[in-house]
Amino acid sequence: MKLPENPEPLAAWTELRAELRRTVGDSTYEIWIAPLELKALEGGILLLKGPPATQAWVQKRYGAILERCARSVLGPGVQVRIDVAPTQRRVDPAGEVEPALSSLNPRYSFDQFIIGDGNRLAHAAALAVAELPGQAYNPLFLHAPPGLGKTHLLHAIGNYLTAFGGAHVRYTTVEAFTNHFIRALGARSLAHFKRTYRDVDVLLIDDVQFLASKAKTEEEFFHTFNALHETGRQLVVTCDRLPSALEGLEERLRERFEAGLVADIKPPNLQTRVAILRKRVLLDAIPVADEQVLQLIARRVTDNVRALEGALIRVVAYHSLTGNPIDVELTATVLGAMYPQASTLRPSTESIRLAVASRFELTPGELVSANRSARVAWARQLAIYLSRQLTGSSLQEIGEAFGGRNHATVLHACKRVSERITGDSQAAAQLHELKAMLGSVSDDRHC
Length: 447
Fold this sequence. Notes:
By secondary structure, this protein is of the alpha/beta class. It has 19 helices and eight strands. The two termini are 47 Å apart.
């Protein structure tokens, strides 16, 4: 791929971040790459900046990876430079910069966290811990599959305490904790290592499932946990499974995890997914003028927040590389390639009502009401037509779903839509748009 003459910096950086996450993995990405920010993209030079405490470390350890990924995204001529400001780096007795000791991502705040039914308890518990560390829930165990926001909440606690609490906060992952421990053993600097993690007010540990089968690291973590807990200091850990499912972990440590509050995070519902996308568009200044684009992504991508944002990134990247506007048609094309299985799934009558109501700025209740105004009636007829086409429900079932209407009314609605889309290009476009939102863009078939 050749480097475009005038690449859109934000879109290029957005796509590059996705490539970097795939290359280095989630844990390394969140610790080292996520804090980097785009400073400029000019003349084939990608200039980045990051927290002063980690800039030199990232340049040394990940500079080659950054440049390789940048060239795969933007073309072979790209060079990457990190703006390294003069700073006093913390060095441990082993002679290396201490990794991940306060590497909090400033983007992960409570303000930027979208609350929904699936994460309300976890968010409330995290906020309570941030406001009253060591007093609310100790330990707090955040449990969720990857990509649902547990790391976001972990960083949000740290950022809140750093900004408002005046507490000494330490964030790390089990991987970084393990590597630091091994280095300390080799350098005979265990006393310094212990002070690093025990002389804090709040310890935030990501991905504790990776403690399993690491006997020496687990032993050290157990004593660190006890030292903090017994003195009333706060511990927050995240994990991709419940404590009881942590095979290979000692029972005594599982019991300590379960002694606090175990708060799970479930996948976001449609409304929450749309809100997450709106927030991302706002934060990154992505040029999305049509709300239906976000609705379409949210309906098609349901796995987790990371996959949801990844889908948006791909749409933006496609827009940047092709010059096509970010609209429903482009989004359906991109998502069709990413999620081909979605087109084989049948939407429910309820999902059709929600999609049509959103498209015409109505409430779902208006579609099942007795309102016969032209705007409501046309939207209702489209919803009935789509239900007949896409759900496999009977005429009677569809009628019941739309306010107890009879089968004759359902047939009449189907006939009216079929007739109108034949000679009305705007009506045909509305139908195609709704089908794209629902993940079904196959040829029309008559009722």
